[in-house]
Specification:
Layout: H1 2-27, H2 30-35, H3 41-48, H4 52-55, H5 61-76, H6 81-100, H7 106-123, H8 126-136, H9 141-170, H10 172-194, H11 208-219, H12 222-243, H13 245-251, H14 256-281, H15 286-304, H16 311-340, H17 345-374, H18 378-400
Helix pairs in contact: 1-8, 1-9, 1-10, 5-7, 5-8, 5-17, 6-7, 6-10, 8-9, 9-10, 9-14, 9-16, 12-16, 12-17, 12-18, 13-14, 14-16, 15-16, 15-18, 16-17
Length: 411
Amino acid sequence: MNHIEAQAGAGRLRQIGILVGATLGWGGGVAMFVLLGGLFIAPLEAAFLWRRGDIALSSFILLGMGLMAPLIGVAADRIGAHIFVGVGAIGFACAYVALATMNGELWRYLAILGFVALIAAPATSPLIYSRVVVAHFTKTRGLALSICLSGSTALAALMLPLTQYVIASFGWRAGYYMLAGLALMIGAISFVLLRKAAPPRQTEASSGASKWGALARALGDARFWLLALCFASGGCALVGVSAHTQPFLTESGFDPMRAAWLGSLLGVVMIVARVTVGALLDVMEPGWLGLTAFLAAVLGCLGLAWPQAPALAIIVALALIACAQSAESDFLGFFTARYFGVAHFGVISGALSLIFAVFVALGGVIAGRMHDTFGDYRAFFYLAAILCSLAGVALFASARLKAPEVRNSGQ
């Protein structure tokens, strides 16, 4: 009995180590690059006289990551996650150093973003860490996914005020140098912890031919396309808002340091919301939960569009959007595994991530361009409210459909 208990305890410790490694890996990679990127928009605009819409092209790194997602998904089903972590940590450290040494040439900025989009960002794609989590957790899968994907939010909550302080005190170049060191440190810890997560064993059910066959079956399932519609519209809206939250706050009368602290507070809200949603996904009907989350985002977007809104209304609106954004991250991994199984999770999740990334990239750029055109973000907030409504309806509809009669879930 003691031997069995010891084995069970060792198994739980291994699970915890893997979860911590996946959480750090996701938090210290492309998520950190995107979530902290808003702090550099105004400094780069002032230093080089670039347009805000041009700086917001950094959102297109998510497009590059999405284009690589199907291949990354297949590789994630075959290769240990720690390999990806090592490549991503080194890649992002190099990118931050390159950004810190820019001299005002826009083409150089775009070249760095291209490197991030095609190499560093795909190596830290959330589907890699989601694949590890869904493979090692079953009964508490929703909760484990929510904890893993909270890594980016927790790190951003800690780093937003610190990064803003470094930028204000020592300049934006020092901010990038600091992030380079942080990327290496977090990557090293994640690498060590994820070495314990062995690569998935290759069986006939997980062979390459079977994976592409599973993807073909998924493409013939209406639930796949409803999920795609949900993540495309929701991602465009929510990431578009979050990427421009810091400059929006400063334009609304918040000083930069106060805006950074508010960003940290929203990060805490996102963590609590994400873990709560993850736990609820394990015990309640997920379709209704998804619809509720996106309707909350609709209210938040309309609140931000309120002319001369008071500070409290802005904070509440951003909190509602933060809750929905954190929930959406949980939904992608949870619903993919629920509808299509675990054996082919990587390739199917990769296809959905491709669609998601295209529209996420568009969201940041559209928000920047609409700001340049209209002089503020109000028009984009109205558009975001429409897109969030569409996302909620699509996710709810997917939960109402049954699986096709002829379907191999891969389980």
